[in-house]
Design goal:
Layout lengths: L5 H12 L5 H8 L3 H13 L12 H4 L3 E9 L4 H11 L5 E6 L6 E7 L2 H10 L7 E8 L13
Length: 153
């Protein structure tokens, strides 16, 4: 992988702000002609600095306004238990992110639901039904201060 120079960083910043930017507008914004801009974008894609393009959807309107951070502990931390949990949790549409953790909990989830009743249904019908789940702790977010789609460059 090559080192990123200031032009590469400009490209990444511009595309992180607006992934629908036309190639011509991108070239103009970063101060290069079209062909070198396209060459650089292709290289950034090939080297996986750019992993894809997507639309930022309104999570609140589509899923709900309630974010819940859920710590999940498993009965055992064997490969089978971890794999079984992960197979189940990726199927739950309420789960926006899932991280395997160190410390007291094995996993940390960010769950988005419309209200408390929807969260209770998620717990009852999904999370507690996954074999091997031993403990669940929930923390409700009071407000969202920041949600980044990419690291600041």
């Amino acid at each position: 992988m090559s080192e990123l120079d200031r032009i590469d960083l400009k490209i990444l910043r511009a595309l992180a702000e607006d992934g629908r930017l036309s190639w011509r507008d991108l070239a103009q914004k970063i101060g290069l002609s079209l062909t070198p801009t396209l060459r650089r974008v292709r290289r950034l894609e090939e080297e996986h600095y750019i992993q894809g393009y997507f639309a930022r959807l309104d999570e609140q309107r589509l899923s709900g306004a309630m974010s819940v951070f859920v710590s999940v502990s498993l009965e055992k931390q064997t490969v089978d238990y971890l794999a079984r949990f992960e197979e189940h949790i990726v199927q739950a549409p309420q789960v926006m992110s899932c991280f395997q953790m160190t410390g007291d909990a094995d996993y940390m989830l960010r769950v988005v639901v419309k209200d408390l009743a929807a969260y209770q249904a998620f717990l009852t019908n999904t999370l507690t039904c996954i074999p091997g789940v031993a403990g669940i702790k929930s923390a409700f977010a009071l407000k969202s201060v920041m949600l980044r789609s990419a690291p600041p460059i």
